[in-house]
Amino acid sequence: MTVAAAGFVSVEELVEAARTRTGAGSNESFEHLDALEALTSAIAGEARLTPSGVQVAANALVSALAVQVAVRRSLERHPEIAAGPDARLVFVTGLPRTGTTLVHNLLARHPAVHCPRLWELMAPAGSRDVREHARLAAQAQAWLDEFYAIAPRLPAIHPMGAHRPDECHRLLGHAFQSMIYPTRYRVPSYSAWLRERDMRAAYEFHRVQLASIMWRAPAEVAGLKCPFHLWHLGALRTVYPEAKVVMLHRDLTAVVPSLCSLSSVIRAARSDDVDKREVGAFWLSEVEHAAADLLLRRELPSNEGVLDVRYVDLTSDTIGTMQRVFEFIDVPPSHATEKSIRRWIAENPADKHGRHRYTPEEFGLDPSELAERFAAYRAAYAV
Question: According to the model, what pLDDT value does residue 248 have?
């Protein structure tokens, strides 16, 4: 697929490329194309991508369409997948940069819990053949190596690996409805569109993909993680009413600048025109909206089944905090699991891939103003 340096491909061209890649017939339909239209229009008019960034973005969207074909074919071969994931479910969420990644990685140390790996999330549908698994994992690692080559600061901020647990925003991304896109690209019109979107259909597709993953790798508990669920808790709880939720909390005066730094590094991998102050204003608004919604929801009956975890407790008493998490999801902690957690912590210090350096001021943020804006949240969760 060839795309113009100054523009972006149409939905029709992306669909045709996906048909070519997958062998899908002209009578096979694709879903969530209205969301794809909102996203591609924003990328074309607002994202300011480099020519290589345009190509990378287009290929990623074709890959998402290809996942839809793979899921459909997997359901045809194994209709039992449609019954849903055969596992108890726990979602780890919270605003970005609050410790969700650490909890998710440590959750995966328990033998009863399967936290989908990056390669599984990139290719959620497939056979149980371990040779195919190895091939898909190698493809995922090759993609990641290329990404790190153009975003060399990212491993210090958010380390990833083909065989490491990763964020299930990828499953929503296959429906073109996720906050990961504003993280990657400057797409304000898409962000506004997403804020008003009914996300239930996207989460229903998320559930089908999760069922495919858990069919391939059965486990007692499925552990999912993504900060962006916080923006769509209503849809999440509607589609996954049985799931438990572990909610991380951290002082937002630390969260917002860190998130801005992460987003600016990711955007810079695909654009030479990243305005850090604009990034700061965007994420300040988004976090303010999510935090206000969270404060409203914590008083609702639907907030049952939520375990609140403070970042300060996670970092000061990691073992004790994870014991609370395991008890909450009804998987008894053990000496072996504790030993595995301690080994993982020792092998993965926070600065293993370098230090994450940034200042609030480079994003136009004033720490004292942040403290004032988020006073209600900080008081409610004692962060």
Answer: 97
Cβ atoms of 62 and 202 within 8 Å: the answer is: no
Q: What is the pLDDT averaged over residues 166-175? A: 98
Which percentage of the chain shows pLDDT scores above 90?
A: 90
Residue 216: give the domain boundaries: 82-381
Task: Name every residue whose Cβ is closer than 8 Å to that of residue 370 and which is 6 or more positions away in sequence.
Answer: 252, 253, 256, 284, 360
- Residue 74 covered by a domain: no
CB atoms within 10 A of CB 303: 15
pLDDT (tens digit per residue) in 261-289: 999 999 999 999 999 999 999 999 999 99
Instruction: Say how many domains are in the chain.
Output: 1
Cβ(139)–Cβ(89) below 8 Å: no
The answer to whether residue 126 is domain-embedded is yes
Looking up residue 215, the CATH number of its domain turns out to be 3.40.50.300
Q: Do the domain assignments include residue 40?
A: no
> Up-side HSE of residue 302: CA atoms within 13 Å toward CB?
13
* Full DSSP string of 215-277: HHS--SEEEEE-GGGGGGHHHHHHH-TT-EEEEEE--HHHHHHHHHHHHHHHHHTTBS---HH
Residue 198 DSSP code: -
pLDDT (tens digit per residue) in 342-363: 999 999 987 787 778 889 999 9
pLDDT at residue 1 tops 70:
no
What number of CA atoms fall less than 13 Å from residue 31's CA on the CB side? 17
